[in-house]
Design a protein that fits this description.
- The protein has 797 residues and is α+β, with helices and mostly antiparallel strands.
- The strands form 4 sheets. The protein has a 5-stranded antiparallel beta sheet, with helices on one face. A 5-stranded antiparallel beta sheet has the order 8-9-10-11-14, covered by helices on one side. It has a 4-stranded antiparallel beta sheet with strand order 3-4-6-5, covered by helices on one side.
- The radius of gyration is 43 Å and the shape is elongated.
- This is SpoIIE family protein phosphatase.
């Protein structure tokens, strides 16, 4: 066994041991509670608390039912073996009533009926007939108290997860006080020397309530506990006044601190010691409250803070007010910066971005030509074509063809008598145009980047100005819908509410039957509810099982994409060499956006491959930093135009597929046409922009097309079509083969292979070639009742 395996095994064993300790601790608490409730006698005759406690624990905490059963039976032993037998019969009667298949009574009625029937039969047997009226009264009181106590326990003993997630309401607090008072009456016999356990707990509980909730909570605790304990014993009702005044004084002393609470809780007892001699304020009483006050002083603050948060949670209005203030404050600061960005954008963007694209103009005569005696012959009415030669020279310099440049220069030397000076002026003019081009595109790049920054700030401010309670209201709406569907979700968090990128985490109880999986409820019921609320599909991102602080599962939902893309790539190099000038990349920017990059470097050398790969890498980096595609294209052009290598450039065919809404956005810098096959229809996306690195590039416009399920997208480099054969004829044959194969039921890999084999049977591929094929289909949710069947679109005879 490796060290990692040993560590994992030890960690699992430690978790299991921790769970067993926690279960043993909770079981012990339930055992003691049942033990004391079984000894709690009301009106000195009725014992109404054991059966309600068994019924609640048996229903909500089944794994701890055995602790409650043993605790109740053992507690009844101190009241007599007859009471043990009565409790056993009442539990059996309750189980029979609840398991009766032909009617279903409420739990409180079933408990009360079980107590009543067993007591009637038991007392009838004991008195051999109708029992006395007083006994009948006690039986009725026991049944009524059992019904009331069941209702109180239903409020107090909620599901296990709600002990850690929900806040304590006043109803729950009152129910807890009633149950605690019943336990105190069952502890009356626990007196050790000068120490009384119920008096000690009463004092400790009042002091702790004063520390947590000051006067109101401490007074309520004292009044409720004093009243119930006094009524249960039918004597010493004066203790009601002592307990109430103790809570009042302890709460008033909370302003001073813990010592103020402790001292304030003892003063009423000292007062009543001299005021009313009939009260049982003896040495046992004072010793017990003194010990209770001392123990109270040792309780850590973290426990009181936790209880305070449960009883008096921060109001949502206060949190929302703080959030509003923070939103307004940050928005104010951002708006100041936004004004500066807006100023810079108007200074740069409005001046250079709105300038019209300059058309190609004719070359004007050089200065050398103006002073030359042959000016009229070269540039006059009987021109010998010098203007055309100079235009060709600029074009060949831009394209970078050495043979073409040499040919044009020879023609100029043949016709010009001052060719040396003319070439110097042409080089100077070309250099000036390059500098102007770099200057223009540098300003344009800055303008676009400022525009992106402005858009990001506008988006941030808009999100901050959105309704600050949107998450709260959405969570409430979802929670309400889940309650209406009887889905027990005790924790729900909306992490993101952006359309198309929503993320919701829901905490659920684990599966309760063997045939059900943990995701069954989420797939069959919650996903359709979310789809109905937000009108967009959702999917289960992950499911995490957790045992802390109790056993539950966390299901994470996120917006599901409406479309999905399958793709395949065909790539080959010229003469099967190691280096290809083509490079490509297909990747997801996020689950709803798919990016496609195809670049073709000039030539088939290692440098061409390096150029295209570099362009792909830089474009990916720009997109990963959320740069606008248009800004990224111009930034790359500017960066690539400053490279050291002469006459090196690369085309870039860039497309984004919006999988949420079914849109195709295309940017082309020297790229070939993109084809969208839709049945018998072919849509073409074209662009006249020059390759990246050409100084003549001035704008890269985006083309948008709406996609439908079943569309096939084809992108390719220029090496697919031969420069020798007719271009239109090659394109027609390629598209005809693609349409014939696209509608078949083959896999996309088989389709692309078939298309390329069929096309190469007509034409040979002589250059580096890359073909990208993508097929767009609908995403069908896993909870859908049916799935669409995709029929073949090929023609059948």
């Amino acid at each position: 066994m490796t060290s990692i395996e040993w560590y994992n095994t030890a960690n699992v064993d430690e978790q299991k041991l921790g769970m067993k300790k926690r279960q043993l601790l909770i079981g012990s608490l339930f055992f003691l509670t049942s033990f004391f409730l079984a000894q709690s006698v009301v009106f000195e005759a009725a014992v109404p608390f054991s059966v309600p406690f068994w019924a609640i624990i048996r229903t909500k905490y089944k794994e701890y039912a055995k602790y409650v059963l043993f605790g109740g039976l053992i507690g009844c032993v101190f009241l007599g073996l007859g009471q043990v037998f009565i409790l056993a019969l009442q539990i059996v009667m309750y189980e029979c009533i609840m398991r009766f298949r032909y009617w279903q009574l409420p739990q409180s009625i079933a408990v009360s009926l079980a107590v009543l029937l067993v007591q009637i039969m038991w007392q009838g047997v004991m008195y051999q007939g109708l029992p006395p009226v007083l006994v009948q009264f006690y039986v009725g009181c026991e049944a009524a108290l059992a019904l009331i106590m069941t209702l109180f326990m239903q409020v107090l003993f909620v599901n296990s997860h709600e002990w850690f997630t929900s806040h304590w309401t006043y109803e729950k607090l009152g129910s807890g006080l009633v149950v605690f008072a019943a336990m105190l009456t069952g502890m009356q016999a626990i007196v050790i020397s000068y120490f009384s356990l119920p008096i000690f707990l009463l004092q400790l509980f009042i002091c702790f309530g004063a520390l947590v909730g000051s006067v109101p909570l401490a007074t309520v605790i004292g009044a409720v506990l004093g009243t119930l304990i006094g009524v249960a014993k039918l004597s010493f009702t004066g203790m009601l006044s002592v307990a109430t005044l103790t809570g009042l004084c302890a709460g008033m002393g909370a302003r001073v601190g813990r010592f103020g609470v402790a001292i304030g809780s003892i003063l009423p007892s000292v007062f009543f010691l001299f005021y009313d001699a009939t009260l049982p304020l003896d040495s046992v009483y004072f010793t017990s409250i003194a010990v209770g006050s001392i123990v109270f002083l040792t309780i850590p603050n973290k426990y009181s803070e936790k209880v305070r948060d449960k009883l008096f949670p921060q109001r949502e209005e206060i949190l929302l007010a703080r959030q509003n203030w923070l939103t307004e404050h940050v928005t104010f600061k951002l708006e100041h910066f936004q004004h500066f960005v807006q100023f810079m954008k108007e200074l740069v963007f409005e001046r250079f971005m709105t300038a019209p694209i300059e058309e190609a103009k004719e070359v004007s005569p050089m200065n050398t030509c103006l002073s030359c005696f042959r000016y009229d012959r070269c540039w006059g009415a009987q021109s010998n074509g010098m203007d055309k030669l100079m235009t060709d020279w600029f074009h060949m310099k831009g394209v970078g063809k050495d043979s073409g440049i040499h040919r044009v220069e020879e023609q100029i030397r043949y016709k010009c008598v001052k060719s040396t000076k003319i070439f110097e002026e042409l080089e100077t003019e070309l250099y000036r145009e390059r500098i102007n081009g770099q200057y223009f595109h540098g300003k344009k790049m800055i303008a676009l980047q400022l525009r992106d920054m402005s858009n990001h700030l506008n988006q941030l401010i808009a999100e901050m100005k959105e309704e600050t309670i949107s998450f709260v209201s959405v969570e409430k709406d979802i929670t309400q819908r889940l309650k209406e569907a009887h889905i027990e979700c005790f924790q729900l968090d909306v992490l993101s509410n952006k359309p198309g990128a929503r993320k919701i985490v829901c905490a659920l109880a684990p599966a309760r039957v063997n045939w059900e999986e943990d995701t069954t409820l989420a797939e069959r019921m919650i996903l359709p509810i979310l789809y109905d609320i937000f009108e967009e599909p959702f999917e289960i991102e992950k499911v995490v099982a957790s045992d802390k602080p109790f056993r539950h599962i966390q299901v994470s939902f996120r917006s599901a994409i409406s479309f999905e893309v399958e793709y395949d790539i065909y790539s080959m190099s010229k003469d099967a060499t190691l280096y290809s000038g083509d490079s490509h990349a297909l990747f997801q920017l996020h689950p709803g956006l798919f990016a496609i990059l195809l670049s073709d470097g000039m030539g088939q050398s290692k440098e061409a491959q390096h150029e295209s790969r570099k362009l792909i890498h830089l474009m990916r980096e720009c997109l990963n930093y959320n740069m606008n595609p248009e800004t990224a294209m111009h930034t790359l052009h500017y960066v690539m135009s400053l490279k050291q290598q002469d006459d090196m450039y690369a085309t870039l065919d860039f497309a984004l597929v919006d999988l949420q809404h079914g849109d195709l956005w295309s940017w082309k810098a020297g790229g070939m046409s993109t084809y969208i096959l839709r049945g018998k229809e072919v849509l073409k996306v074209e662009s006249n922009a020059a390759p990246v690195g050409f100084l003549s590039i001035s704008a890269v416009e985006a083309e948008k097309r709406k996609l439908k399920a079943g569309d096939v997208i084809l992108m390719h480099s220029d090496g697919l079509f031969s420069s020798v054969d007719d271009w239109d004829e090659q394109e027609e044959i390629f598209l005809a083969n693609a349409q014939q194969v696209a509608g078949t039921t083959k896999t996309i890999q088989e389709k692309l292979t078939t298309i390329m084999q069929s096309f190469q049977s007509y034409y040979d591929i002589e250059d580096d070639c890359t073909v990208l094929m993508l097929e767009v289909t609908h995403v069908v949710p896993t909870w859908a009742v049916f799935r669409p069947v995709q029929h073949s679109m090929s023609n059948s005879s």
